[in-house]
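For practice. Supply one:
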Amino acid sequence: MVLSPDGAVLLLIDLQERLMPVIADHEVVVARAVRLAEAATLLDVPVRATEQNPAGLGPTVPPLSGYPQAVLAKTTFSAAGDPGFAALLPPAGEVVVAGVEAHVCVLQTVLDLIDAGRRVVWAADATGSRDPADRAAAIDRARRHGAEIVTSEMVLFEWLRDARHPRFREVHKLVR
């Protein structure tokens, strides 16, 4: 059950310029998503992102924009409902999810991924909504349907598995 970087992918959902300012604790959400993206990059975990209606909500926020190797522009709330989604993710392996809004696009994507048989790991501290009650309800619902709820730090240390990992010092700096 321990997470592994082998075969994993980090999916950043709709962390966009015009949306983030209205998200509760948006600075923390972005900082934790950056932590995940930086660790993923160091550990050769692919980073993918989605953008909900980028013409209206803008691109991915600058602190994260350099990490994704591919970005899917979408109008569907569930990224899995977009025709281009299948090409965005590898066909198997666990999907570590972070983003906004927890109760809309993140939740619907998570539920669809679970329904498709994927192992979904939801980084709760890197996920937000405008209303914290919506975020809490979404996390609870996702958990009841099989999503594993974790924190970004849990992901990092499980990906490392050992303090002797060659990237330990670099990844450990991300949590200080």
Remarks:
- The mean pLDDT is 97.
- The chain has one domain: 9-175.
- The CA atoms of residues 40 and 98 lie 13 Å apart.
